[in-house]
Amino acid sequence: MALRTPSQTIGPFFHEALRWPDGGKVAFAEAGGKVVLSGRIFDGAGNPVGDAMVETWQRSPSGSTPAPAGGSRNPHGFGRVETAKDGTFVIETSMPGGDTPSIGVAIFARGLLKALRTRVYLAAEENVRADPAAAPLAASPRLRTLIATRTGDGVYRWDVRLQGEGETIFFAP
Amino acid sequence: MNEMKRPVDPPYLYPEYRSTLLRSPREPLVELPPGALDIPGPLVPRAFAADKDNDLTLAGKSAPLGEKMILVGRLLDADARPIRDALVEIWQANASGRYHHPGDNHDAPLDPNFHGIGRTFTDGEGRYRFITVKPGSYPWQNHKFAWRPQHIHFSLLGNAPAQRLVTQMYFPGDPLLDIDPVYNSVPDEAARKRMICKLALAAGIEMVALGYEFDIVLAGAKSTPLGI
């Protein structure tokens, strides 16, 4: 057994080091329905978090584990983007397979000594409440903080509030 | 063992580090049963790191200023097994304590021969190696006379989202460690010390570069590598 190395903040100066070419365009070995997921991240005072990094992971369009990234420029099923000054992030991906499609999200930023882990559902609220993987939240009014708003064909909006009113649900690692 | 009494990671709210005040969640974290998002990966294409991307001293036309160092280490899982073929990304200030970043307005000189960005993959035994210079300390606005200890930022992906780690590596004997709220946010002293590299002279290059060693241990993954 080995003892784990602690987490530390990503700080404000990670951008060039961690920027991946087309990191926000999530690749898969198979074709699927296009999804554009965008949103803004806000702190406890309602100010945009303009220096965060967002990573996403998900199932492939057929619902399977994304295949190794053979021939792709980017890891399959995995996205990485920075927030803009106004806290906006954008991920272009494919609809994950399954009855209640969801995307795993990790947020890193100055002031976050360890990543925040959450998820966004691209599904109707009643389906999410019935999802066994969300069972501890089935009756929670806060569950809505994990559900994206569909604003067009394959276009979803999801804001994240780190603290205070409307605080997004975050998960234990 | 202290390890059992205190968590390894810092809390989200650590008031001595002021930026946590408005960015730390206040609701309790939710524990979820294993589900569709407990998947392995990601597997990163090898093209993400060229052979020379582990040498941070090649960014300009000549050598960067500062104390040249070789940094080696292993990436391990909680069972001390090597994590192979994993992308390791690092970034750091130059020898004067200035980042090559538009957001850094510290009044210390940029070095045209140093950008402070490196990446590499671990080998079959989980080993990585970087060639760089020792980063300088720099002041920041957290509190009066706040200076960050010398440090190098690390980003590790591991084999599953539960293993994902971003951390910082510090240097032995740095007097600024005592006053640094980022370092001291880790509640357990033994865990804090696991963020300090060791002098490893034999990893260096005689008459050229000092050697340092820093092993990194990631969490155990919830999912087995191919478990669905």
Descriptive notes:
The complex is a heterodimer of chains A (about 170) and B (about 230). With about 170 residues, chain A is mainly beta. Helices cover about 5% and strands about 30% of the residues of chain A. Chain A has 2 helices and 9 strands, in the order H-E-E-E-E-E-E-H-E-E-E. Chain A has helices at about 15-20, 125-130, and strands spanning about 35-40, 50-60, 80, 90-95, 100-110, 115-120, 150, 155, 160. Chain B has about 230 residues and is mostly beta strands. Chain B is built from 3 helices and 11 strands, in the order H-E-E-E-E-E-E-E-E-H-H-E-E-E. Chain B has helices at about 1-5, 180-185, 190-195, and strands at about 70-75, 85-90, 115-120, 125-135, 140, 145-150, 150-155, 165-170, 200, 210-215, 215. In chain B, strands 1, 4, 9, 10 and 11 form a 5-stranded mixed sheet that branches. In chain B, strands 3-2-7-8 form a 4-stranded antiparallel sheet, with no helix packed on it. In chain B, a hairpin with an 8-residue loop joins strand 7 and strand 8. The interface between A and B is large, with 77 and 78 residues.
